Amino acid sequence: LELSLSLQGRAEPRPATLRMDFARSRYRFHGFGGNYCFEIESPVTQYTLNNLRVAWARTEMTLSDWEPVNDNESPDEVNWEALERQDAPDSNLRREFLLAKQIQTMGIPYAIAIWHIPEWMYEDPGKNPGTLRRRLAQGKWDELRESVGSYLLYAKRRYGVEPDLFSFNEPNLGVYVLFSPEEHRDAIRSFGAHFQKLGLKTKWLLADTTDPRGTHAYGLPAANDPEAIRHVGAVSFHSWGGGSTEQYKAWGDLAEWLDLPLLVGEFGVDAFAWRGEMYDSFHYGLREVRMLQELLLHARPQAALLWEFTADYGIVQTRPKPTGGEELVPTHRFWFVKHFADLTPKNANALETNSDEPDVLITAFAGEQQGRRVYALHVANMGPAREAVIHGLPADAGPWRLVRTSEADQFRELEQVSASDGVLRLALPARCLVTLVGAP
Fold first, then answer.
1. Which among 66, 335, 336, 414 would be 20 to 30 A from 284, CA to CA?
2. Are 361 and 354 contacting, i.e. CB atoms less than 8 angstroms apart?
3. 70 to each of 88, 117, 119, 151, 236, how far by Cα in Å?
4. Each residue of 65-115: pLDDT tens digit?
C-alpha cells in the first residue's frame, strides 16, 4: 500500500463581521461553574475555589460510604448510630460534607448527584464498579429513599448544608444506576414527596442525561406529570460529544416551557479523554471554548459546570518543585475558563449576537457590578489570524478592557481600545479567545 499525503491550508484575509444588539436580551445567565465530585482531596479543589468566580457547583453523594450495609430491616426507621459512624475523620464522606459546607458558605448554589448506590441495593451485586446499566433491586425503592433522605437530613443537621438540587447521574444510560423515563418520573414523585416530608428544600434536577443528542425526550414523562414536576427545580444535560444546533435548542425550549433554569451539569468535550492526556492540552481547551460558545448561543443555559474543578480532568497541574514539594500550575484550559467565569457579570442578560464566519464565534452579556452596568463580549477565533469588525457596541461603554488567551498568551491584559460610532476593529491572532469588558 502506498500513500501520498499532502497538507493544504488557506489564510482568511477577509475580516469577520460580528454584531451585537445590547437592547435585545435573550435569556438570563447565572454564570460559569464546575464539578467537585472526584479527587476532591486534591489541592486543585481549593485552588479553583480561591482563584475562580464559581457561580454554580456540583458534588457527589457517596451513598455507598454512607450506608455500606443496610442499617436495619425497616426502611421507615433510621439507625442513626450506624450511619453517623461512617462520618469518620479524614474519610471521603467527611471531606464531602466539609466541601459542601464550604461551597454553601461561599454563597454558591450547588447540585448533588449519585453515581453508585451501595452494592446491597443492586439487583446484581458484586459487579465491577464501572459496569453500566445496573438496576436497583426489586423491593429496594423504599430503602434507597430512606438512605438518600437520611444523608440529606444528616448533612443539614450536622453541617448546616442543603443542596439546591439532587439527581442520579446520567440515569438514561445507567452511569451507574439505570432508570427508564417512567422510572425517572416515579422516582421524582416519590423522593420529592419524601424530601418535602423531611423539611428539606432540595429539589430534583430533571434528566441530567449523558449527552444533548435528542435526550431531552428522556425528561418528558416527568415534565408532563403535574405531581412529579412540582418537585423539580431545574433541568440538566451533559454536553459530552456535543450536539447540533437543533439538539441544543430542544433543551433550551424544554426549560423555557417548564419555566425552569437549564444547567449543563457536566460541560465537557470527550468523555474518554481521561484515557490519555489529551484533555490537558491547549487544543482540547480550544475545543471546549467552541462548544461553550455554541451552547451559550443555542441551548441558552443558566449555568455551565465544567468537568471538573478538581484534579480529575484537572485544569490545574500539580508538579514537583526542584527544591522539593509540589506547585500548582494553571493550564491553558484554566485561563480559558477564567475568561468566562471571572469576566462575565454574574446573573447577566445574554444579548443577541451573530457572526458571518463559522470559525469566529461571539457571545455577549450585560449585567451589573457594584451598581453599574457592565458588558462582556467573548470572541473566539478558531482559525487563522484575521481581523474582526464588531458592530452595535453601546455608545456609553468604553474604553474597552481587552484580555486574550492563545497558545502564546495566558489571560494577557492588552491595551484598552475604544469604539467609534459603535464599531470596533480588532486584530485576532490564530486560535484564541479574546474578551472585551466595558462599562459606562
1. 414
2. no
3. 18, 12, 10, 14, 31
4. 999 999 999 999 999 999 999 999 999 999 999 999 999 999 999 999 999
- CA nearest 34: which of 50, 17, 12? 50
CA distances from 353 to 24, 191, 439 (A): 9, 41, 18
CB 92 within 8 A of CB 152: no
Residue 438 near residue 400, CB atoms below 8 Å? yes
- R_g of the chain, CA atoms, integer Å: 23
With beta carbons less than 8 A apart as the criterion, state whether 375 and 437 touch. Answer: yes
First vs last C-alpha separation in the chain: 65
CA distance 5 to 72: 68
Mean pLDDT of the chain: 96
Q: 10 Å Cβ neighbour count for 340?
A: 27
Q: How far apart are CA 389 and CA 397, in angstroms?
A: 17
Q: Kindly give, in sequence order, each residue whose CB lies less than 8 Å from that of residue 65, ignoring residues fewer than 6 positions away.
A: 86, 91, 92, 93, 96
Strand partners, 427: 387
CA dihedral (282, 286, 291, 292) in degrees, to 10, reads 90
State phi, psi for 112 to the nearest 5 degrees. -125, 140
d(CA 191, CA 204): 9
Distance CA 268, CA 242 (A): 8
CA angle at 251 for the pair 349 and 230, rounded to the nearest 5°: 90
H or E stretch at 250: helix 245-258
**DSSP element (H, E) containing 1:** none
Residue with cell 457571545: 363
Cβ-count burial of 423 within 10 angstroms (0-12 exposed, 13-18 middle, 19+ buried)?
exposed
Q: Which amino acid is at 226?
A: P
Backbone angles phi, psi at 17, to 5 degrees: -100, 115
Cβ within 8 Å of residue 407, ≥6 positions away: 282, 332, 431, 432
Q: What is the pTM of this model?
A: 0.94
Going by C-alpha positions, the residue among 238, 303, 228 that lies closest to residue 267 is: 238
Q: To which H or E segment does residue 145 belong?
A: helix 141-159
CB atoms within 10 A of CB 171: 24
Neighbours of 245 (CB within 10 A): 11
Q: How far is CA 35 from the centre of its chain?
A: 6
